[in-house]
Amino acid sequence: FPMILVLISVLRIHLFLWTLSGLLFLGVLIWLYVWLHAIIEFTPISITSSDKTVYFFDTQVVTQKIIMDDPALITRLEVPWYPPTVDTPVTVEMRRYGKLVSRWHINDIGDGSSKVLSLVFPTPQYIDGRLDISFIALKIDREHLAVAPRLFLEPLDESFSLGNYRIGDEEKGGDIQMRLIAQEERVDVFKQAFIQDPIRSIARVLAWCVGLSLVATLP
C-alpha cells in the first residue's frame, strides 16, 4: 500500500511537470507568433546631406525626385530643415508618376535653428515607382530670403543615386536630405532575409527548433 501511494505521488509529479512543460512550450509558441507579427519600422529611403542648404520661395519650388524599386508601406516622411522665421504658409506635396499622393500644410515659425519636419500620412500607403516631393512657399519672395525656409542639400549626388533634386524645371545633380519611414511585420523581414540568404535563414530556423524542442522535453 505505501508503494502504491509513492507511485501515485511520482505519477502526479510527472504529470504536473509535463503539464508545466506543455504550458511553457505553448507560451513560447504564442510569444513567437506575436513577436513575428509585431509591426516594426524601417527606412527604405535615406538621403544624407552636407551642411549646404537651398532656399525655397514663391518663384523657386524645390522638388526631390525619388525612384523606389520595391514597394513599402510608408507612414511618414522626415525632412531636416530651417523653418521660415515669419508666419507664412508652407506646402509640401508628394506625387507618384505625377498624381498627387498627399499634401501637407505647415505653419511652423522657426527661431533660426534647424528642425525635423515630420510629415505623417493619415493612413499608411504602399508606395513605389517615381516620387516627386515638392516644397513650396508662395508668400515669400526673393527679396526676403533671410526669413525664407531652407532645406539641407547634398550637392555632389553621392548619397542617393536613384534620384536628384530640381529647382522649378531645372534638374540639379544633388539631393535634398530626407528619410521615408515605413512599417512592416517582422515576419516579412525574415521572408526577405530567406530570399536573400536561404542557407543562413534555414540554419537560424533549425536553431530555434532545437531550442523549442529542449523546452518541450523539460522534465
Poorly predicted ranges (pLDDT <50, ≥5 residues)? none
Q: Care to count the β-strands?
A: 11
The rounded Rg comes to 28 Å
In percent, how helical is the residue content? 25-40%
**Beta-strand share of residues:** 35-45%
Question: Which structural class best describes the helix and strand composition?
Answer: alpha+beta
- Specify the biggest β-sheet: 11 strands, antiparallel
Mean pLDDT across residues: 86
Q: What is the overall silhouette?
A: elongated
Order of helices and strands: HEEEEEEEEEEEHH
Secondary structure tally, helices: 3
Notable characteristics:
219 residues, alpha+beta, 11-stranded antiparallel sheet, 3 helices, elongated
How would you describe the overall organization of this protein?
By secondary structure, this protein is of the alpha+beta class. The chain has three helices and eleven strands. Strands 1, 2, 3, 4, 5, 6, 7, 8, 9, 10 and 11 form an eleven-stranded antiparallel sheet that branches. Helix 2 packs across helix 3. It is elongated and about 100 Å long. 18% of the residues are buried. The mean pLDDT is 86.
Detail the topology: elements first, then pairings.
Layout: H1 2-36, E1 39-47, E2 52-55, E3 62-82, E4 90-96, E5 99-106, E6 115-136, E7 150-154, E8 163-167, E9 170-171, E10 175-176, E11 178-185, H2 186-196, H3 198-216
Compact summary:
With 219 residues, this protein is α+β, with helices and mostly antiparallel strands. The chain has 3 helices and 11 strands, in the order αβββββββββββαα. Strands 1, 2, 3, 4, 5, 6, 7, 8, 9, 10 and 11 form an 11-stranded antiparallel sheet that branches.
